[in-house]
Design brief:
With about 375 residues, this protein is of the alpha/beta class. It has a domain at about 215-374: Leucine-rich repeat, LRR (right-handed beta-alpha superhelix), CATH 3.80.10. It is about 25% helix and about 25% strand. It has 11 helices and 16 strands. It has helices at about 5-10, 40, 70-80, 100-110, 115-120, 205-210, 230-240, 285-290, 295-300, 310-320, 345-350, and strands at about 25-30, 55-60, 85-95, 125-130, 135-140, 145-150, 155, 175-180, 195-200, 220-225, 245-250, 270-275, 300-305, 325-330, 360, 370. The strands form 2 sheets. It has a 10-stranded mixed β-sheet, covered by helices on one side. It has a 6-stranded mixed β-sheet with strand order 1-2-3-5-4-7, with helices on one face. Helix 8 packs parallel to helix 10 (about 310-320). The radius of gyration is 25 Å and the shape is elongated.
Length: about 375
């Protein structure tokens, strides 16, 4: 194809798939994956001028808000004149005690021109996450699959009256971290289609306000900073609302001592458990407690870290419905330098268990053993 014909072809582009691995920025235009973001700024003649019919553009960055509202306005006016849908999600972590309030104010101000508020009526919201010192800027309504934040939100918006946009229906994966704030009325938002939830205990009442129903939830990951005796009852309250839950994972904040998962909780539909933790290994007694617990008796897939290899035998022999075990064992001496023919733990398990069991080592995570129960 000649240079001229390539240019003509690009002029008719409505949907495009391009992936350049060397950049961190994701562009999506309709069905597009287009990298990098800076191409529009550095090479407009090669990218945007030759896509004058582009009508849908979605931009997502990781730790980069180098282009503000004024610059985006110039890009769209000059090169994307037929653009009808613009969806944006930018993230940046602040460093060296930067003034986040001033940064948010300046960023929001750049999206408050007549172009944004009147001509296009494209509104943005900026959230501040104090836990990781991060700023999230996105267009409204929120158009992405994942959402992470401290709740209630600390935010500023270009929407009329600075009201938080209510609908986050596109979010399927939500990470919820409770803040100490009691101001539950500042931001009336709703997540109605959450399928995968990560939540940091304790749970405050705000959760029930923003996720009114858990009927689509199939995967739940629970974490905590400091374990509290009330956590099992809080978790049970959440489980009782998630009738379709299949997978339950428990982890802890890596900087703090860990705590054994509360095995006394119950749920009828959970079949997959993940108690894998680099800082906590379940001993024989705890594995026995797990295998006799309601969740253990119905578990079909288990991922766990154990203290020694006999724990593996305990789990396999005592969990009647177990089909697959993914396990990391503290007394495993295997290293990546060893050859597959000298895998002592795998050979030991093969000797101890029936020959119908399939036992392999994860080639990507060398400290994981995968065991399929016949």
């Amino acid at each position: 194809m000649t240079k001229i014909s390539r240019a003509v072809s690009r002029r008719s582009i409505l949907f495009l798939n391009i992936y350049l691995r060397e950049q961190h920025v994701l562009f999506k235009t309709g069905l597009i994956d287009l990298h990098p973001m800076m191409a529009i700024l550095i090479m407009p003649s090669d990218v945007t001028v030759h896509m004058p019919n582009l009508c849908n553009l979605t931009v997502q960055t990781i730790n980069d808000i180098s282009v503000d509202g004024r610059q985006w306005e110039q890009i769209i006016r000059s090169h994307l004149i037929k653009l009808k849908r613009f969806r944006l999600k930018l993230t940046r972590k602040l460093v060296n005690n930067e003034n986040w309030q001033q940064y948010v104010d300046e960023l929001i101000s750049s999206f408050q021109s007549r172009f944004w508020l009147e001509e296009r009526r494209w509104f943005v919201q900026c959230d501040w996450d104090p836990d990781v010192a991060a700023i999230y800027l996105y267009t409204l309504p929120y158009a992405f699959d994942r959402f992470t934040a401290h709740f209630p939100l600390i935010f500023k918006s270009t929407c009329p009256h600075n009201k938080c946009h209510c609908s986050y229906d596109r979010v399927h994966r939500l990470k919820y971290i409770s803040s100490l704030s009691e101001d539950f009325n500042q931001c009336h938002i709703s997540f109605s289609n959450v399928q995968d939830l990560t939540i940091y205990l304790p749970i405050n009442d705000y959760l029930w306000m923003i996720v009114p129903k858990f009927h689509q939830l199939t995967s739940l990951c629970v974490a905590w900073y400091n374990y509290d005796k009330d956590f099992p009852s809080q978790l049970q309250l959440l489980l009782d609302r998630a009738t379709r839950l299949y997978s339950l994972s428990m982890e802890t904040w890596r900087s703090y001592p860990t705590q054994m998962a509360p095995f006394e909780i119950t749920h009828a539909s959970i079949r997959r458990l993940d108690f894998y933790n680099y800082h906590y290994h379940y001993n024989n007694e705890e594995c026995t407690i797990l295998s006799h617990s309601p969740l253990g008796m119905q578990c079909e897939v288990l991922r766990i870290s154990v203290d020694n290899r006999t724990c593996i035998l305990d789990l396999v022999n005592k969990m009647a419905n177990l089909h697959q075990l993914i396990v990391q064992c503290r007394d495993d001496k295997h290293t990546e330098q060893l050859t597959a023919s000298s895998d002592e733990l795998v050979e030991w398990l093969q000797h101890q268990l029936p020959s119908t069991y399939l036992i392999t080592r994860n080639i990507r995570l060398a400290n994981e053993i995968h065991l399929w129960v016949s």
